[in-house]
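Dock 1,3-dihydroxyacetonephosphate; give full complex structure.
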Amino acid sequence: MATATLSYPQLDAYVELPEAELDERIARAKVVLGKRLVVLGHHYQRDEVVKFADFRGDSLKLSQLAAGCTEAEYIVFCGVHFMAESADILSGEHQTVILPDMNAGCSMADMAAIEEVEVCWQELAQTTPARIVPVTYINSTAAIKAFVGRQGGAVCTSSNARKVMEWALTQGEKGLFMPDEHLGRNTAFRMGIPLEKMAVWDPHQDRGGLSLGEVREAKVILWKGHCSVHQRFLPEHVESVRKKYPGIRVIAHPECRWEVCEAADEVGSTELIVKRVKESPPGSQWAVGTEIHLVNRLAAECADKRVISLEDCGCLCSTMFRISPQHLCWTLENLVAGRVVNRVSVDPETKRWARKALERMLQI
Ligand code: 13P
Ligand code: SF4
């Protein structure tokens, strides 16, 4: 017997659709949904998807937009899971957040499990009487954000990490930065904290692999986590592009290793990278240390400049890539038919505390 759900659009039916048809159907669904829908797109999304975004931006801009788009009933987030979770946390009760493919996760966010963070917190408390303020990068689960909210800390993004860390160190004597060791180190170093005052907590080792003295000496404790995309950029790549293209400027995302960020001319979020490259005069040369879709788009949009990836092979975020026009079309046509698919919904208690940590960030 046929079930009621079979009358709704099924994902399988989209797999072989030609690109032109997908484009037309996505555009049509957007018109039908009108103001009930807003599509947000992160800079790493592929062109075929991001061209349908009503707004595109970095994590900070997109979370501000999610908090501000109060009119839309549906927020379709073309990005990764933690971004959609943040949108759900910051949006209103009347709004529904949708991630076109639920498999679009973030390997960095997966490197900090809430159980590991709780163990770390307890063990740090046994090691030092100092007040520690936790800061979590937005690339983390809602559970970690809620933990941070409960403990009086805040969320940060790549564009406000410094401000948030400075704030944290006025609230306590030490900071615990999760889950990106590189962003934490790059930020603290630029605040004037020497590398010797930073310790790395490895959740897979007993007591984080740190001695009592190391914890007591540290101003900032960095969670051992990283982005596998950005970690592929190496200082040798900076050296090699400078040799090959004299005068080229190197701009890197702060998820890159400390050695790469130190060797670069500029370091900043995806939004800052876009701004710097676009605002530079014709004839400028840029080697960009971030995800390849953004680099290729910048190269196409700035044909009067040389824009290349810092690494020859080009680093791809395979989870961002999971959001396809097929998934977007399927999601939107289901909304037109009155069915919500792939809703990202954070439970009320987690939401309450995670919201506190996100709101602290937006206030700072
Ligand atoms: P931005 O906030 O700079 O867009 O970074 C998000 C991200 O996931 C980078 O890997
Ligand atoms: Fe996560 Fe790295 Fe992809 Fe950003 S680029 S979403 S940090 S895996």
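Observed: The first strand starts at residue 37 and ends at 42.
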